[in-house]
Amino acid sequence: MISTYLSEFLTIALVHFLALIAPGPDFAVTISQTVRYGRRVGQLTALGIGSAISIHVLYTLLGVGALMHTSPQILHGVKILGAIYLLYLGWKLIRSQANTNSESDVDNLALANQAKRGAYLTGFFTNALNPKATLFFLAIFTTLISATTPMSVQIFYGVWMCVVTALWFILVSILFSQDKIRQAFLKQGHWFERIMGMVLIAFALKLVWQW
User: Strand ranges (DSSP E) for the chain?
Assistant: First the structure.
C-alpha cells in the first residue's frame, strides 16, 4: 500500500529531515549532554527526543493539534510551558562550573551515572514541550498529507519520523563523543555549556516575544 503514497512519503521525509538538521533546542541539548557526560548519555537523550515525536504525531492524528491551532489560549499555554522548560535548561547550563583536576574518576563516573538516569527525560521533555514542533507537525499533517491517506499510512509516517529523529541525534552524539572532538570541547567545557545555555534561553525568549 505504501507504494501508492510514495511521492507523499518522500516529500514528508525530505521536509522533516531538513527541519531536523536545522540547529535548535534538541541539537543544543544533545551536544551539551554528550560533551559533558559522554556518548551513552547523549544517546539516551537522543532516544528521548525521538520518542517525544510520537506525542506530536499522536495528538495531531487525534485532532488535538487542530484544536490547539484554532484555540489561541491552548497554543499560548503550550508556548509558555515550552519557554519555561527551555529557560530552566538554559539556566542550568549557564551555571555550569569548570571541571577541576581534583575530580576523581569515581566522581566523574558518579556524575555520568546520575546523568544517565535523567538523560532520556531531558531529551523527551525538550522536544515534547517545544511549541515549534507542535506547529511543524500540525503543518505536515494538514498540508502535506492528503485527507484520503489511510490512518495506517499516516501512522507509518509518524513512526518513520520518530526513528529518523532518534537516529540523527544518536549520530550527533557519536560525532561529539569522539575523543578528539570531546576533549577539545571539554578543555573549555563550562564556556561551551554556557553558550549552549544562552542558545536555549534565546529560543525561550523568542517564544515569549512571539507570544
Answer: none
What's the pLDDT score for residue 156? 93
Distance separating alpha carbons of residues 69 and 75, to the nearest angstrom: 7
In the chain the first and final C-alpha atoms are separated, in Å, by 42
Question: What pLDDT, on the 0 to 100 scale, is given for residue 186?
Answer: 63
pTM: predicted TM-score of the whole model, two decimal places: 0.72
Q: Which set of grid coordinates corresponds to residue 115?
A: 546523568
CB 85 within 8 A of CB 201: no
* Averaged pLDDT for residues 163-189: 83
C-alpha–C-alpha distance, residues 138 and 32, integer Å: 29
In degrees and rounded to multiples of 5, residue 138 shows phi and psi of: -65, -40
Q: How far apart are CA 78 and CA 32, in angstroms?
A: 25
Contact predicate 119/41, CB 8 Å: yes
Residues 6+ apart with CB under 8 A from 88: none
Q: How far apart are CA 92 and CA 193, in angstroms?
A: 9
Which residue do the cell numbers 491517506 mark?
149
